[in-house]
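Hello,

Our lab assistant flagged a job as stuck in the queue for most of the afternoon. It eventually completed. Since we weren't sure the result was trustworthy after the delay, we are filing this so someone can double-check. Below is the sequence as submitted and the structure that was eventually returned. Let us know if re-running is recommended.
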Amino acid sequence: MKTIKLPSALHEVFGEESTLVEMLLILFFSVGATWGLFASTQAEWEALATWKFIVILILAFDIFAGFIANLTFSTNAFYQASSKVPPPKVVA
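-- returned structure --
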């Protein structure tokens, strides 16, 4: 598949190069999971102040995006090549 070179600000999410399929997968999963979470828990958050709701919405989206991004080849390749973050250690 054809890869797309990304700006350095997006490297920690998508890696240095990513495919369109991976980027769309991350975007659609994150939006869908965030919407599903808030749709299923509407009673809990509808009394919150608007700014609190927006902060929670952004955090939920970020967590879901990070979760699915960590499963993509491009993000894994970036972290394996990066000296900033060592690869995860598996303890058996």
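-- support follow-up --
The delay was a queue issue, not a problem with the job. The result is valid. The longest strand covers residues 3-5. The two ends are 35 Å apart (CA to CA).
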